[in-house]
């Protein structure tokens, strides 16, 4: 009778271990999928940028530096490690803000239908990126929470599951936004 209890206990432990391990795999895949969703939106953004730059070029003969920086950052977004790409995303966001600020000096450009459509599409893409980032961070939170909680942490250590990093705002993005009319 004691042997059956010991065997039953061992089977329950093994079953729990397998289920917990599979849950970690599922959570890790959810993180990969969430990153892929961000990637899709970043690709969309990168595809919009050349059209935006071409539309703006005719109006901004003196703003070549801003346009060049945007083009360089666009190419860095679609290649490299996730960390390098995140850094490029932050620099591109800053460059795009500069571009739209410069556009304020060109009334004909601001009224140009192509520019307005591209600006609207870019805004829509930025919103989708923000949503995808939130989903990614939710997935990372659930995964990290699961690998830290006891007794799951035992399986996490045995399976070499490591904590993932969150997609965080940069110092620049955290600054107070000033709206002037």
- Fraction of helical residues: over 70%
Would you tell me the overall average pLDDT? 78
Outline the biggest β-sheet.
Answer: none
Low-confidence stretches: none
What's the quick description here?
With 181 residues, the chain is an all-alpha fold. It is built from 7 helices and no strands.
What descriptors fit this protein?
181 residues; mainly alpha; 80% helix; rod-shaped
Describe the structure.
The chain is rod-shaped, with a radius of gyration of 24 Å. The model has no long low-confidence stretch (mean pLDDT 78). The longest helix is centred in the first third of the chain and has 56 residues, at 2-57. It is 80% helix and 0% strand. It has a domain at 32-133. The protein has 7 helices and no strands. Helix 1 runs antiparallel to helix 2 and helix 2 (64-77) packs antiparallel against helix 3. The protein has 181 residues and is mainly α.
What's the structural blueprint in terms of helices and strands?
Elements: H1 2-57, H2 64-77, H3 82-103, H4 107-111, H5 113-148, H6 152-158, H7 171-174
Helix pairs in contact: 1-2, 1-5, 2-3
């Amino acid at each position: 009778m004691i042997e059956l209890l010991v065997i039953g206990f061992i089977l329950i432990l093994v079953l729990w271990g397998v289920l917990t391990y599979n849950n970690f795999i599922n959570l890790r895949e959810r993180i990969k999928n969430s990153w892929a969703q961000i990637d899709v939106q970043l690709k969309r953004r990168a595809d919009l940028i050349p059209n935006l730059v071409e539309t703006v070029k005719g109006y901004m003969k003196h703003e070549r530096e801003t346009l060049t920086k945007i083009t360089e950052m666009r190419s860095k977004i679609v290649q490299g490690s996730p960390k390098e790409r995140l850094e490029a995303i932050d620099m591109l966001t800053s460059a795009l803000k500069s571009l739209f600020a410069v556009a304020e000096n060109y009334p004909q450009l601001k009224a140009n239908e192509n520019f307005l459509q591209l600006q609207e599409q870019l805004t829509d893409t930025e919103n989708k990126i923000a949503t995808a980032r939130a989903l990614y961070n939710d997935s990372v939170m659930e995964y990290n929470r699961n690998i830290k909680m006891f007794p799951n942490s035992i399986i996490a250590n045995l399976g070499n599951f490591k904590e993932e990093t969150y997609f965080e705002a940069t110092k620049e993005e955290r600054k107070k936004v000033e709206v002037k009319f």
